[in-house]
UniProtKB/TrEMBL annotation:
SMART domains: Pro_CA (SM00947). Pfam families: Pro_CA. Residues 22-33 have a biased composition (Basic residues). Gene3D superfamilies: Carbonic anhydrase (3.40.1050.10). It comes from Actinokineospora soli. Belongs to the beta-class carbonic anhydrase family. InterPro entries: Carbonic_anhydrase, Carbonic_anhydrase_CS, Carbonic_anhydrase_sf. Residues 1-84 are annotated as: Disordered. It comes from the Bacteria. The keyword Iron does not apply. Its EC number is 4.2.1.1. The lineage of its organism: Bacteria, Bacillati, Actinomycetota, Actinomycetes, Pseudonocardiales. Reversible hydration of carbon dioxide. Keywords: Lyase, Zinc. This is Carbonic anhydrase.
């Protein structure tokens, strides 16, 4: 470190009596507080938005604002995570019954989104072509921050993407969406049974699911065992995500939720698992 520079937080030593005196005056001003001529302590003006209401106070302790400012769709209320889940559940109900609205697909909406995105939930789903999150929840452009990886396997890119959604896009809800007859989970069962052989990075993927299969109680009914393994993998992914990510763990303390859920291929229904 160059001579003459104080470290951050360290006070530099005065080098002359005049400088020493200036330092003492400065310290007195700090102790008494900076005052304006009328004797009132100087206060920062309250920042206001254009409608004249004060801005919401930032949440304590978190290095980022998890609660986004209130908006027209009701975001910003105390229980944004449950509101987001109810919205997803309502969309899934429309999908199940075949009465989809197909919202947010218009040309006008698409152009509006050029300004930026504000998704109301993040979904980590399998890459399976039968389970596209926007379709099964009947949502449109800009509604969901979607990350997909076979078997919902976590790696650095997946975790980082979800952290981005929570930290920068302020989504209040992260859904881990497993599904019926997941090929990736089937492959992990084959691996455990010694009947599967996988090469390339597929082997890494399958090995990442293996602990979920080993943790699932044996069941002679193959379909039932697969369903139980899928549920275990989905719940386990939700737990691992929270364990692995400091950002998401801290966000949970401020109302963000990580919810495991499972999709049924035949009915199209998503069931919450936790
Ligand atoms: Zn799958």
């Amino acid at each position: 470190m160059a001579e003459g520079y104080a470290r951050r937080g360290e006070r530099s030593q005065p080098t002359s009596p005049a400088e020493h005196l200036r330092g003492r005056r400065r310290d007195r001003r700090r102790r008494s507080g900076s005052r304006v001529p009328d004797g009132h302590r100087r206060r920062r003006p309250r920042s206001r938005v254009s409608d004249g209401h004060p801005r919401p106070r930032p949440l304590p302790r978190l290095p980022f604002p998890v609660a986004a400012p209130a908006s027209a769709d009701g975001a910003g209320s105390p229980d944004r995570a449950e509101q987001s889940w109810r919205k997803l559940a309502a969309g899934n109900e429309r999908f199940v019954s075949g009465r989809q609205k197909h919202p947010h697909e218009s040309l006008r909406w698409r152009e509006k989104l050029v300004e930026g995105q504000k998704p109301f939930a993040a979904v980590l789903g399998c890459g399976d072509s039968r389970v596209p999150p926007e379709l099964v929840f009947d949502e449109g452009l800009g509604d969901l921050f979607t990350v997909r990886a076979a078997g919902e396997v976590l790696d650095g890119s997946v975790v980082g993407s979800l952290e981005y959604a929570v930290e920068h896009l302020h989504v209040p809800l992260v859904v881990i969406l497993g599904h019926e007859s997941c090929g990736a989970v089937k492959a992990a069962i084959d691996l455990v049974n010694g009947t599967g052989h996988f090469t390339g990075d597929v082997s890494l993927l399958v090995r990442a699911i293996e602990p979920a299969v080993r943790a699932t109680p044996a069941d002679p009914d193959k379909a039932r065992f697969l369903a139980a393994c899928v549920a275990e993998q989905t719940r386990r992914t939700a737990t691992l995500l929270v364990e692995r990510s400091t950002i998401i763990r801290e966000a949970l303390q401020h109302g963000v939720k990580v919810v495991p859920a499972s999709y049924e291929l035949r009915t199209g229904r998503v069931t919450r698992l936790g």
